[in-house]
Amino acid sequence: MIIEVNGKKLDRVYQTAFEVREQMGNETDILILNGFQIENDYELLEDDVLTLIPKGALPKQEELESMMMARHTPNVHQKIDGGKVAIAGLGGLGSNIAVMLARIGVGQLLLVDFDNVEPSNLNRQSYYISHLGMPKTAALKKQIEEINPFINIETRNVEVTESNILELFNGYDLICEAFDRPEAKSMLVNGALNLLPNIKIVSASGMAGYASSNLIKTVRPMNRLYVCGDMENEAKIGKGLMAPRVQICAGHQANMVLRLLLGIEDI
Amino acid sequence: MQVNGTTISSEKNQTLFDFLEAKNIDFNIIAVERNGEIVPRSTYKEVILSEEDTLEIVRFVGGG
Question: What ipTM does this complex have?
Answer without folding.
Answer: 0.96
